[in-house]
Amino acid sequence: MGLLPESTNSQYRGSPWSAAFLGLTAVLTIGPGCIHYFLPDGGAGVIAGLDLSADRTVIVGVFAWMGATQIAYGFAQLLVALRYRSLTPLFLLLALIERSLAAIAAWITKGSGVAHHPPGAYGVLVAIPLLLGFLVLSLRPRNGPDGV
User: pTM value?
Assistant: First the structure.
């Protein structure tokens, strides 16, 4: 069998645009993951503008940990977008849940009194309606005799 089972793309009946959007989401997950993991400060200071003087080691370590999970999750999203499209609705739903929880934390529960928000806090506000729209499209069967 090998590492990967056979492709399930032929079983996917939703919009091809949803699978393509999931691929874009993957790239936009892997990119920040690499920043968090590979930059010396994880992007905490140079991008997010955080003061690292309190406990630099812990802050940078947490950013690297998050980067590691983003890289792995992003590669899973990319694999689904390219090879296992029948899982597209599930992965769009997971991304929607993740981005929604991030938005709630950034703007309501954890970061509501913060004067400065990192770029990702704004990005999730854009991502949420897009993810919801492409999730709906992924669940609607294509029209036509060839499924398009």
Answer: 0.89
